[in-house]
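[job 0412] stage=fold_complex status=start
inputs:
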Amino acid sequence: MSEPVTALNGATYAGVARIAELPRRGMITIRGSQESAALVAAVGAASGGLDMPGPGEAVIAADRMLGWMSPDELLLMLPPAEVAGALAALAEGMAGEHYLAVEVTDARALFSISGEGAVAREVLARLAPVDLSPAAFGPGNFRRTRLAQVPAAFWMLEDGSFELMCFRSVAAYVFGLLCTAGEGDAVGHY
Amino acid sequence: MLLLECPCCGVTAEETEFHGGGEAHLKRFGPESSDQEFEGYLFNRVNPRGVHFERWRHVNGCGKWFHAARCTVTLEVFGTYPAQTVEPPQILRELISSKRPGWQWREFT
Ligand SMILES: [Zn+2]
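[job 0412] stage=fold_complex status=done
writing structure:
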């Protein structure tokens, strides 16, 4: 079996902001009613006990995350080796229920955006039509939006850095965007 | 630029995160309808100066369709409401009446 690789082989960039393609992470798209007790229980079992995120939020633990994608969609990230087990837990918990769970690990690319102060906020504010002021966006917030011309989603970690995902097919485009937005000096707006 | 609030996910963003879907509340005329009704369903759209009702999709977001009421002159958005609605909600029509007395859009006032 061939070795899975990420889209950009872990490309990095260091300007005023630091951009890095992140290692491969297991990802499962889960669709179903979030008001269903069965779904909440099954997602809890599949995620290793993560709470359900509210709208616009991500529940983030050391090596896993549950992001709110839409009223009927969640994204579960966890170590790649745990994907099969999580899918089995979902299938068991949702037997007879209307739902969908599918692995999307290699359909996506992941990036980290960090820097001194609010530099990471500035990088994303240059690219997305999102209010990135600290009052509007903080750790645990999760947002689907567009980055220049392509869809993307990002979330903020406790240390003030961001993680971002996009479709794998546009990974090089998004990396280029992030690097360009990470050039120059900090603006100091936030 | 329009600022729209998606009623499905609660996000407020400017229009580039969304995609316009044309006039709202069209009634479909298909098989068994008259040629005139079918033509109207396919082609006849209002193009008002003022109050307008449209469909929008949160394409770079939660992906859901919804409805929006706005003013084509000022770009003021009066409100957004679920796609699963066959006519403008009464509460929204009253709000529009308070801001645009005497407004009319298709058969709605
Ligand atoms: Zn939305």
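[job 0412] summary: The domain at 3-99 of chain B is CATH 3.30.2270.10 (Folate-binding fold).
[job 0412] exit 0
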